[in-house]
Amino acid sequence: MFNSLSGRLLILTTIFVMIAEVLIFVPSIARFREDYMLNRLERAQIASLALLADDMLDPALEEELLKNAQVFNVVLRRDEARQLMLSSDMPQAIGQTFDLRDASALTLIRDALARMIDTENEVIRVIGAPVREAGLLIEITMETAPMRMAMIDYGIRILILSAVISVVTAFLLFLAMRALLLKPIARVVGHMRRYAQSPEDARRIIEPSASVTELREAEVALRTLQTDLTQALKQKERLAQLGSAVSKISHDLRNILTSAQLFTDRIEMSEDPIVKRMAPKLVGSITRAVHLCESTLAFGKAEEPGPTLTMVPLAELIEDVVEGERLATGNHAISFGADIPVGLTVRADPEQLYRVISNLVRNARQALMGTGKAGEIGISAQDTEAAWLIEISDTGPGLPAKAQEHLFTPFQGGARKGGSGLGLAIAAELVRGHGGQLALIKTEETGTTFRLTLPKGDGTL
C-alpha cells in the first residue's frame, strides 16, 4: 500500500494539507485572542454606559456588571477626561499592558504564542478604542487564565477540523488522481505487458485513448515505439530467413565454382591464343566468386567464438602476416615495413588478431596492386598507458567516398570492384570482441591509415 503511487499520494496529500492547516492555525489563534479581548472591551463599555445613565448604582449591581464583563476595572476616556467607571478588587498587580489600537499582525501572533506557552495566570491591562466612537479610549483589567483556556479549546477544535478536512481532501484527491492518472497508467502498463508477450502481433499495439495531455503523449510515443519494433522484428525475421537461404546457396555455389576452378587450370594450358588471353580473366572471376561465397558463409555463422586472450608477441605475428602477403605481391613493386618495439606483447586472441591484421594488410596490398604502381605498406605499434595501438598504412590511392560511408557495413563497404565488404565488417566485429575499436584514421590520394586499439585493464576505452 505505502510503496504504491496511490498510497504515497494519499499520505503526502494528508501531510501537505495538515501543514497548510498548521500555517493557518497560528494566525487563527492570534485572531481569536484579539476577538476575545475586544469582546471584553465591548462588554465593559456597555457596563460603563449603564453607569453613565445612573450615577448611583447599587454596589451589588456594579459587581454583577463587572462579573458579566469578566473584568476587574473599566476606565473610559471621554473629552480628554480619564474616568474610572467601574472597579473591583484585583487578585494581583497588573503584569502586562496590551494596546489593541495599533497592534500589527506579527505583534498579535507573537503575543498569542507567548500566552499559549505561559501557563501562569496574570492580570493584564487591555487598551482599545470604544465602539461607535463612544469615547477616546477604553481600558480594562482582566485575568489571562480564562482567555488561555478559551484559546486552547479553540485550537483543539481547529486542529480536529483540520484533520477532518485533510482526510476528506486527501481522499477526494486520491479518487480524482486514481481516475485521471493511476488507472490510465495501469492500462498503459497492461498494454506493455501484453505486447511483450507477442511483439510480432500488431493487434497488441496500444491505441491512445487518455484524456490527459501528458498521458496521451506517452501513449502516442509508446505506439510509435511498438510499431517500429514490430516492423523491425518482422524485417529481422525476413533477413534471418534470407541469410539462411543465402548461406545454403553460397555453400552449393562454392562447390560448383570449386569444380569450375579445377577445369580452368587445364584451360590455362591450352595453346589457343584466345583461350590464353581469356583464361586469366576467367580464373580471376571464378576465384573472386569462390572468395565471396566463403566470406558469406563465414559471416553467416551465428556468431564468432569469443576470443581466448593471451599475451601475444606482436612482432612475430606481424612477421607471419607480412611473409604471406609478400608472396602474394608477385612481380609488383610493393615493399613492407614494420616498426614494432622489441619485446612488445599485447593481450589478444592470436588467431583472431592475425585475421584482423592480415585483412587490413591484404586490402592495402590489393589497393596498391590495382594501381599498377610501386607502393609501400607500413605497420607500426605503440604501447600507451591505456591501450595498445597498431596502425596499418599504405601509399595507395585512398578509399572511394562510397566505401568510406559504409566502411564496416557488410556487403556495402567494399573498396574494390567486385569486393563484398565483408572483410572489414568481420575485422571490426573481432576487434569489438576484444573490447577494442577499429577506426579509419585517414584516407587520401597519398594513402590510407587504419588504427587498431586494444585496451588494457577492464577493456574500456
Automatic annotation (TrEMBL):
What SUPFAM superfamilies has UniProt attached to this entry?
A: ATPase domain of HSP90 chaperone/DNA topoisomerase II/histidine kinase, Homodimeric domain of signal transducing histidine kinase
- Entry's Gene Ontology molecular function annotations: ATP binding; phosphorelay sensor kinase activity
InterPro entries in UniProt: HATPase_C_sf (IPR036890), HATPase_dom (IPR003594), His_kinase_dom (IPR005467), HisK_dim/P_dom (IPR003661), HisK_dim/P_sf (IPR036097), Sig_transdc_His_kin-like_C (IPR004358)
- One short Pfam name that applies is HATPase_c
Locate the transmembrane regions by residue number: 6-30, 158-181
EC number annotated for this UniProt entry: 2.7.13.3
Keywords from the UniProt entry? ATP-binding, Coiled coil, Kinase, Membrane, Nucleotide-binding, Phosphoprotein, Transferase, Transmembrane, Transmembrane helix, Two-component regulatory system
Positions the record marks as coiled coil are 215-242
- Reaction(s) catalyzed by this protein? ATP + protein L-histidine = ADP + protein N-phospho-L-histidine
User: Origin, by domain of life?
Assistant: Bacteria
| Main enzyme class | transferase
Record-annotated Histidine kinase domain positions: 248-458
Q: What is this protein called?
A: histidine kinase
Q: Organism source for this protein?
A: Sulfitobacter sediminilitoris
